[in-house]
Amino acid sequence: MTRRSAAVSFEDVMATTEFRPAPAAHITVDGDACRGCTTRACVTACPARLFVPIADGGILFNYEQCFECGGCYLVCNEKGAISWSYPEGGAGVVYRRG
Amino acid sequence: MAERFDAVVVGAGPAGSMAALQLARAGRSVCLLERGPFPGSKNLYGGVVYARVLDGILPRWAEEAPLERFVTRRVTMVLTATQSLAVDFRSSAWGEAPYNGATALRPEFDAWLAAQAEAEGAVLVCSTTATGLLVDASGAVVGVRTDRPGGEIGAGVVVACDGVNALLAKEAGLAEAPDPSHYTLGVKQVLRLPEAEIERRFGLAPGEGADFEILGGTGEVPGGGFLYTNRDTLSVGVVLSLDGLSRSAVRPEEVLAGLTAHPAIAPLVDGGEVVEFGAHLIPEAGLEMMPRLAGDGILVAGDAAGMCLAAGIWLEGVNFAMASGSAAGEAAAEALVAGDTTRRGLAGYEARLSSGFVLADHRRLRHAPGLVLSERVQRRYPEMVCNLVEELFTVRNPAPKPGVVQMARRAARRSGVGLGDLLRDGWRAWRTFG
Prior knowledge:
The complex is a heterodimer of chains A (98) and B (434). With 98 residues, chain A is of the alpha+beta class. Helices cover 20% and strands 18% of the residues of chain A. Chain A has a single domain, classed as Alpha-Beta Plaits. Chain A has helices spanning 10-14, 31-35, 41-45, 71-75; strands at residues 18-20, 27-29, 51-53, 59-61, 82-84, 92-94. In chain A, the strands form three sheets. Chain A has a two-stranded antiparallel ribbon. Chain B folds into three domains: 3-66 and 105-178 and 288-365, 3-Layer(bba) Sandwich (FAD/NAD(P)-binding domain), CATH 3.50.50; 181-283, 2-Layer Sandwich (D-Amino Acid Oxidase, Chain A, domain 2); 374-433, no CATH class. Chain B is 34% helix and 27% strand. Chain B has helices at residues 14-25, 61-64, 106-119, 167-171, 195-202, 242-247, 252-260, 266-269, 318-338, 348-355, 357-364, 368-372, 375-393, 404-414, 419-433; strands at residues 3-10, 30-33, 48-50, 69-79, 84-90, 101-103, 123-125, 130-135, 141-146, 152-160, 183-192, 208-215, 223-229, 233-241, 273-283, 294-295, 298-300, 309-311, 314-316. In chain B, the strands form three sheets. In chain B, strands 3, 4, 5, 6, 11, 12, 13, 14 and 15 form a nine-stranded mixed sheet that branches. In chain B, a hairpin with a 2-residue loop joins strand 18 (309-311) and strand 19. The chains are: A alpha+beta (98), B alpha+beta (434). At the A-B interface, helix 1, helix 3, helix 4 and strand 6 of A face strand 11, helix 6, helix 7 and strand 15 of B.
């Protein structure tokens, strides 16, 4: 089916990309540090919308649809709140048309 | 130690595969590590490859590499919310040998290049992440740790081509703590359209491609846009200042949606089915962000070394990666033969880059990124130029036409551009690009 790109939901767009989730997260977020953060740059900048603010002021993070770009730890201004590495070999995003 | 090679190359992107190819060609044993399930699976770019750096190394690249289309139409476009102005250049010469740019999909192109390294004797190991460096008592790098059981690999030289995040260069103490203002975030959608429809819509003959570079289509976030024709897909995306993005309240996919909905772009992408979405950081700052390129037992090449040219009218990366990787491979092989893989023994790498285009272009264009991402170039000049052209071509009879100089003054004033700004930026542009 041919669809206009603008009419497709973000979830549908994300579903077009292949991910092979690793059993363990390659990014960890320190909730305590996030509660003191006022900028929440990761929430805006993550191109996969993986950082979600929660009611207690912390940040919920889902690693399974991560593009492994590294933007989150670069924009984070709470030192050490995001620990970032690459997922284990063979896991994570698999581009076919990158 | 489970394994030992003369050299270990981390990352089978264009830099790593070229390093491994040169090492293998020089008769050294070399292991090429790739964390993805196949080379290119983690890699994403605009993208156009300028592959003439391969002329002397893989002379049949134009026939053998999996290329999508040879670019024969280059459109440089300036957008405001409601206007667009384009320089639309075509050259049939670019469609023939020796060629200029070609669109290519990285999972295919990078896999092909890695296969060339394998054909020379490099040992490609995929699905394996290098988790750290092995260092001897003197601090020299002597191999890598991987996430495979018993997966330490000893090596005379490690060539770190592990991409823009440069984790190994940081671990080796060659790179400073990163500055987010040195990076942009590229966000891209691939849209499927029938091959013939792409050729009809973009006015292309079979096999020919179009490359659109766009300034000013990114709303409040400084950056730019791009649109490339592949064989039966389009790659459309935005490149956003990471700083600007994190300060804004706009998300990357919203900026991209704004671009694809622009009246000048929407008809070109209309009806395209999204078949992939992705994002990747771009090392934007050239020399400003470049790490030390060599340490004892280690060289850094490609994006990990900031070797990507993002200079407004010139946007190149894969060629810089291939050339730097090739130079690293040659220098590493030379050092191994001489039995000196210290920083001094590996100095041939930087010497090669200095005498070639890689460092010459970066030195010449070191001020370009700042100029291109400045508020005036991003917003005021596009608006000023579009307003001037609109004024030029709007017929206001029976009112008489004002003079062109008067129109230009008015357009500059409306966009808040002073004569001093124009002279200053004109001088900067002259010094940078001239």
